[in-house]
Amino acid sequence: MDYLTYELRGEIALVGLNRPEKRNAISDAFIEELAVVIRRAEAEAKAAVIFGHGPHFCAGLDLAEHVKKTPFEGVHGSRRWHEVFGWIQKGKLPWFGALHGAVVGGGLELASSLHVRVADSTAFFALPEGQRGIFVGGGASVRSARLMGLARMTDMMLTGRSVDVDTAERWNLVQYVVGEGEALQTAIALAEKAASNAEISNYAIINALPRIQDMASDDGLFVESFIASFTATSPEAEERLQAFLQKKAGKVARPGEAG
Length: 259
Ligand code: 1HE
Hints:
The longest helix has 19 residues, at 71-89. β1 and β2 form a beta hairpin. By secondary structure, this protein is an alpha/beta fold. The chain is globular. The chain has 2 domains: 4-195, 2-enoyl-CoA Hydratase, Chain A, domain 1 (Alpha-Beta Complex), CATH 3.90.226.10; 199-245, Lyase 2-enoyl-coa Hydratase, Chain  A, domain 2 (Orthogonal Bundle), CATH 1.10.12.10. The chain has helices spanning 28-44, 63-66, 71-89, 106-113, 129-132, 143-148, 150-159, 165-170, 183-195, 199-213, 217-232, 235-245; strands at 4-9, 12-17, 47-52, 95-99, 102-104, 116-120, 124-126, 163-164, 176-178. It has a 6-stranded mixed sheet, with helices on both faces. A 3-stranded mixed sheet has the order 5-7-8. The protein contains 12 helices and 9 strands. 3-methylmercaptopropionate-CoA (MMPA-CoA) (1HE) is lined by residues 22-23, 25, 55-56, 59-64, 78, 81, 102, 104-106, 128-129, 132, 134, 136-138. 3-methylmercaptopropionate-CoA (MMPA-CoA) binds next to α2, α3, β5 and α5. It comes from Sinisalibacter aestuarii. This is Enoyl-CoA hydratase.
């Protein structure tokens, strides 16, 4: 692979963005490698972590490649990003992000398609599309806007505002903030927790929650009942519920206690 590294560590797939000399800028070939790696991770792992090699997570779209495209090629390119990032967001695996340095433009769009984002203190977030004369095309108008809210995203895009990790946490862009250099190990530890869940529960969490968010509340509640019943009557649920009742499964940990 030219743009990514892949490693299976136990049940966790580790995917590294590996074009550090271009700050992990995403070209068409990069997206195609990511498409292959997502499918490989789905076949081999129970959860996945994505991180960036070099000084930054990701500088977004490869601007050198973008300028060479016709308008119609641009539409297809954007639709391909949507498709591939959609395999992450509504696929088979829980995906965790370890973010550091620049998480900008398409890099923030990629991060927004993950399920849990851990950022270290060096991370910063921006949507510089306005300054480049372009628009978001990798899903930010849906995914990033839903995380941080329309007003904040509009401000970022109009003013070129760059936000630090503490602001990003307040704005819902990341769920965890850790010390410099600690994002990857934290993301792996969290991925290991998710990997120990029932697969059917993880699948429902990943696939049902974003869809139910898009539904009218009464429709969402109706769908929830079916998913609840389907998961609760699975053999995995029966085994896990019995294990708890027979005091063979752990209790819910208090915050800060090892789970
Ligand atoms: C790039 C890219 C890129 C760096 N495409 N080549 N994204 C941006 O507008 C972000 C543009 N990048 C930057 O602002 C900075 O590079 C960073 C803040 C991310 C990092 O700064 P730094 O000082 O560590 O690196 P650098 O010296 O700026 O970059 C190193 C090299 O990477 C340099 O090339 P070189 O040939 O001079 O060594 C840069 O030109 C190159 N490089 N970023 C191409 N993005 C689906 S729509 C999504 C729309 C977007 O993502 S728009 C946002 C694009």
